Amino acid sequence: MSEHPAAADIADIEQRFAAAGVVLVPDRKAGAVESAQAMLAAMHWLRQPRTAAAEPSNTFSLVKAMK
Amino acid sequence: MSISKPLHELSIAEAGKLLRSGELSSRALTEHALGRIATLDGDLHAYVLVTRERALADADRADAELKAGTDRGPMHGIPYALKDIYDTAGIRTTCHSKLRIDNIPTEDSTVAAKLGAGGGVLTGKVGTHEFAIGGPSFDLPFPPARNPWNTEHTTSGSSSGSGAAVAAGMVRMAMGSDTGGSIRGPAAHCGIVGIKPTYGRVSRHGVFPLSYTLDHCGPLSWSVGDAALTMQVIAGYDPLDPASADVPVPDFTAGLGRGLAGTKIGYARSFFIDNPMAGAETVALLDQAAKTLADAGASVEEVQLPAYELYEACGRIIMFAEAYAIHEQDLKTRPMAFGRYTYQRIVAGAVISAADYIQALRLRRELTDAVNAVLQDYDALLAPTALVPALPFSAFGTDAGRFAGMMNNPFNVTGSPALALPIGFAGNGLPMGMQLVGRPFEEPMLFQIGAAFEAAAGISAIRPGSALAEAA
């Protein structure tokens, strides 16, 4: 994790927190932003091409409820 | 069978035989455990609550029942502990948090109920990182557990008290939970065994959630045999857990002592070999573990899995999105009730979009299929648990950081059963470990391979230092 997030990253992250309705505790803000930045830095791994079969349907099956 | 070693060194199976033959009473075993807790826990902080009276009552009941010929199974009369996120009727369950400091459940979690019905002796509730995620923190209602191998070091987490209690010989088994490695990390860093069963194998009902689709419940124990016997008591379908799998419960001990002839193990060396945290010492220990398995009769071959970073990203997004959803209201309305680390980690889940979460779920299906495809040809995969030994408390700053060097979350993503085992020691004397990963619902094969490795390697016989050995 970067020790010093870029200003642009911080602005984006702050915007995301605001959109979620979160007002960060000032004293704890730096660590929260760092945690968020580390997560967002890994997002590109999720945005690679996927197969058609790679979808979340039936993650929770109703078969059990039919028994 | 005579008692030729200290009572805390008796395996669950050995103690069980002595209890049934009348050579040992559960009260004596329990008083010994309570004595070790009293002697050692001032330094280790494994327990947040010792249920002494309950333990002695459980023990006396077990003695009376066994004497009368009533046998409730392998945990009958055996002392154990529960991570403090497992609900216990009438006994405080705090999640190591100010937010739940006065929480006294009215019902047992399913696992607590099964252990109770199985005649187990509850010695108390053991510490966790707050809500099973916070990190070693000093701003919580209870201090963090310390590593019995060196009390200046953490136990890893989040089943921190469970790891410390078992490694110190307070109990042979303590229940933990594992969302991204919280059973296997403490097992690795405390030099003990931990099994994250298949998702759905052990009920999560009454266990405070961290991440609905990644949470697993399982035991930390001194040996593979102890873990297998515990699983016999706690596994099984539970209609109260939406994720519970309605599948038969096997004999988890069936493969113990069978050896490795005919088994095939895939060594996921490429998974970690280029990781900058994997030093020569770690690689040598893992290579030696693979060699030990081969020397003992297994066929061991290197296998390829998708890049570790895919699993890490996938698991992390799912975990933080779900954890944030669970805690959203408290994070917004009483943020200061959380410990600093916990707040800073969980609140970060607020920045994850719906699309991010869905993409992680899509990737999860691919990654799960990839692991299961490899396991078509192998009985188990060998992978690291932690690339570095337990960190000192001094390595943690004031703000939340990542626990670098842990490699457990891939198998929460896939839901695969994974058995953590000690493989040796780092240069600083702290334990190191590996994990064996199996096909869904094939825990008995992991216990078979794990027990054979345990016998061949002899690592589990080495216990924390002389200070502990001299204790009660």
Describe this structure in words.
The complex is a heterodimer of chains A (67) and B (472). By secondary structure, chain A is mostly helical. Chain A has helices at 7-19, 29-41, 63-66. Chain A has one domain (1-50). Chain A is 45% helix and 0% strand. Chain A is elongated. Chain A starts with 6 loop residues before the first helix and ends with a helix. The model of chain A has no long low-confidence stretch (mean pLDDT 84). Chain B is α/β, with parallel strands linked by helices and 472 residues long. In chain B, 36% of the residues lie in helices and 12% in strands. Chain B has helices spanning 12-21, 26-44, 52-67, 110-117, 160-167, 184-190, 224-234, 280-295, 308-333, 340-346, 354-374, 410-413, 443-457, 466-469; strands spanning 47-50, 79-83, 121-126, 173-178, 193-196, 216-221, 264-267, 299-302, 380-384, 418-425, 431-437. In chain B, a hairpin with a 5-residue loop joins β10 and β11. The longest helix of chain B has 26 residues, at 308-333.
Tell me which CATH architecture of chain B applies here: Alpha-Beta Complex
Q: Gyration radius of chain B, to the nearest Å?
A: 21 Å
Strand content of chain A: under 5%
List unreliable stretches of 5+ residues of chain A.
none
Biggest sheet features of chain A: none
Count of the domains of chain B:
1
Strand order of the largest sheet of chain B: 1-3-2-4-6-5-10-11-9-7-8
Tell me the number of strands of chain A.
0
Comma- or semicolon-separated keywords:
heterodimer; A: 67 residues; mainly alpha; 3 helices; 45% helix; 0% strand; elongated; B: 472 residues; alpha/beta; Amidase signature (AS) enzymes; eleven-stranded mixed beta sheet; 12% strand
Set out the fold topology:
The complex is a heterodimer of chains A (67) and B (472).
Chain A: H1 7-19, H2 29-41, H3 63-66
Chain B: H1 12-21, H2 26-44, E1 47-50, H3 52-67, E2 79-83, H4 110-117, E3 121-126, H5 160-167, E4 173-178, H6 184-190, E5 193-196, E6 216-221, H7 224-234, E7 264-267, H8 280-295, E8 299-302, H9 308-333, H10 340-346, H11 354-374, E9 380-384, H12 410-413, E10 418-425, E11 431-437, H13 443-457, H14 466-469
